[in-house]
Amino acid sequence: MSFETTPHPLSSLQRQALGAAAMLYQPPVMRSTHPADGTLRFGLVADPQYADVDADVPKNLYYRHALHKLPKAIATFNRKPLDFVVTLGDLVDRHWSSYQALLPLYETLHHPHAIVIGNHDAQVISDRLKSAHTPPAGLPKSYYQFRLSGYRFIVFDGNDISLYCNQGNGDDRQQAQAILADLQARQQPQAELWNGAVGSDQLAWIEAQLQQAQQLEETVVVFGHYPLAPHTGHILWNGGELADLLCRYQVRACFTGHDHRGGYVRRDNTDFIIMKGMLEGAEEVPFAVVELLDGVLTVRGYGNEISRILTKD
Q1: CB 118 within 8 A of CB 47
Q2: Residues 43, 207, 24, 165: is their CA dihedral positive or negative?
Q3: CA-to-CA distance for 260 and 305, rounded, in angstroms?
Q4: Are 233 and 252 within 8 A, CB to CB?
Q5: Which residues are bridge partners to 148 per DSSP?
């Protein structure tokens, strides 16, 4: 079983087509092997979803506002002694050119940065890969892990099997169509075109990571774009299966975005936390700083993000 940090590195064709946006697929490089004072600290932001388009006021979606909201979060992160920062997907809403405006903002971030690819990112990237080369390069896989002493962090890719995949991904898109049809037939709430699934290879890789972490007595924290619980219209198509796997191995917490309203549920000893979307609201700037020490998970919410103190038992 593979324990590779990045099982699917970008191909030369994908890297060439993505240009500067190839950095979206790079795992963070840790500055140290240990949290500075024994307390793990990281920053979280979800769904900036920038686009140079007018706001959809009835839906409370303010696409251009990411350009002044995100720097506020980054400025706060830079004042904190964080081990890393995670963006939980949907950096942009549409248009390949949106990355040219948004990515430079992250150049001011002083901490290692882990990026999750959201559904809007996947659509924009897949369209770029289709237009840049014939036949198209497949949508890259974006699951990986990184570690600090005593901790393992797993980023899962909910676009692994999705309608964002193209002919360069083999039969992944056909698998997605079959999964969606089955969910629709069973009237499952997550049977939406804009969700996706974790494929069998990725599930096996995740379980291998969990097994190794268990053997090494590491605390595991998981990051993704699509929620796994509670069971709503925004969860991963096979979110229940992945949630069961994480709970079986006593994963400490799973942080996701995608559902801009945010949310929280505990299953067994695993906390499933959905971050509020930065896109929502004209002025609200939701983000969080998380601390983990001796099993106590403290989420300090900023803006309209909810603060939580979550004990292990």
Answers
A1: yes
A2: negative
A3: 11
A4: no
A5: 151
Residue 92 confidence (pLDDT): 98
- Rounded Cα distance between 287 and 221, Å, is 18
Measured CA to CA, the distance from residue 12 to residue 238 in angstroms comes to 31
Q: Which alpha helices (DSSP H) does 83-237 contain, by range?
A: 98-106, 119-132, 172-185, 200-215
The per-residue pLDDT for 1 is 40
- pLDDT < 70 positions in the chain: 1-3
284: left (phi over 0), alpha (psi -120 to 50) or beta: beta
Give residue for tokens 């901490």. 111
Q: Is 58 exposed, middle or buried (0-12, 13-18, 19+ CB in 10 A)?
A: exposed
What's the half-sphere exposure (Cβ side, CA atoms, 13 Å) at 225? 28
Could you give the maximum distance between any two Cα atoms of the chain, in Å? 54
Predicted pLDDT of residue 313: 73
The pLDDT tens digits for 280-291 are 999 999 999 999
User: What Rg value do the Cα atoms of the chain yield, rounded?
Assistant: 18
SS3 77: helix
Residues in the chain: 313
- According to the model, what pLDDT value does residue 3 have? 55
Structure tokens at 200: 């069998």
Q: Chain centroid to CA 304: how far?
A: 20
Residue ranges with strand state E in the chain: 40-45, 84-87, 113-115, 144-148, 151-155, 219-223, 253-256, 263-267, 270-274, 287-293, 296-302, 308-310
- Report how far residue 292's alpha carbon sits from residue 39's, in angstroms, rounded to the nearest whole number: 6
Cα separation, 15 vs 140, in Å, equals 10
At 151-190, the pLDDT tens digits run 999 999 999 999 999 999 999 999 999 999 999 999 999 9
Residues paired with 96 in a beta bridge: none
d(CA 180, CA 161): 10
